[in-house]
């Protein structure tokens, strides 16, 4: 009897456990169905700052890197051979054209000049004698006192004497030039370098002769830089090419230790061909350098502007995103929905980025919170000024 009761008791426990598990499964299933039947609440719009695209008249500025070059740069070489006997300048000294720099021993050249002048005097005497002989022969030939051949000989002697005198004159001129070349003077005004050859050294002459020193002009100076093909085409479209129409293009120069571009310059020339390797063309500007602060070879920052003022689309540079090799902005439409828009960038003007294509005046774009939204998202826009410098400071 007890065994039967125990069996029934165990069966009751098992049945109760099964009922509990079944009830729990039914409850979870109903709850899951109720949860799936309840619609998901829509995500809240992402708060972003938007600004209206501006179109204003601007002068587009392009920035380049350049080098200062001397207008005149001369390597001073001897034109006659000899020994250097004097140096007349200090290293780095400012000299004027014609100032003495070196002296080569003039004594051999003075002696050569004296010899040439003596030969010249002899040639003059021979010419005078030949002229007298010819005059006598002409009188005698009238009286038939001499043969015609003697008159012809007198004419030939006069011509020979005349030629000898011209050769003697040329020798004297050459000797004077060589004597003058012993005084080496500054070919241009400017700053002289160090003396490469010192007193007591023998030097040769000609194009293979050693460089004695160099002289570079100080003011004005050139600033040379390369512009890309697109910039060149824009300038050419406004009539700037070679030496024509470039006077209207503003140019400003800044040194490495200067803020901005404080030095005004003027375009001197644009080269006659593009470098096919780099796709650039060489441009030369000229700038005054009265204080001598610009030294040839120095690095210079260059800013050039278009010759005409044009209307341009301007946006905050922080509104521009990068998608691999593309630049884009996020445009917000009237329903606050975000759209992807590829744009083509221009230079920075007055702190804002020029947009060459992709945007129109009056459109709204995301300028803050770009990284938190994606195309087709709905946003909660807050209107701000396009120029970040005009926006009120955020409250912390």
CATH class category label of the largest domain: Mainly Beta
Domains, number: 3
Oligomer: single chain
Helix/strand-derived category reads: alpha+beta
Low-confidence stretches: 1-8, 33-42, 392-396
Mean pLDDT: 85
The third-level CATH topology of the largest domain is OB fold (Dihydrolipoamide Acetyltransferase, E2P)
Inertia-based shape: elongated
Tally of contiguous helical segments = 4
Give the % helix: 25-40%
Major pleated sheet? 9 strands, mixed
> Could you give the distance between the termini?
84 Å
Number of strands: 23
Radius of gyration: 47 Å
CATH architecture of the largest domain: Beta Barrel
* Helix and strand run: HEEEEEEEHHEEEEEHEEEEEEEEEEE
CATH superfamily of the largest domain: RNA polymerase II/Efflux pump adaptor protein, barrel-sandwich hybrid domain
Q: Determine the strand fraction and express it as a percent band.
A: 25-35%
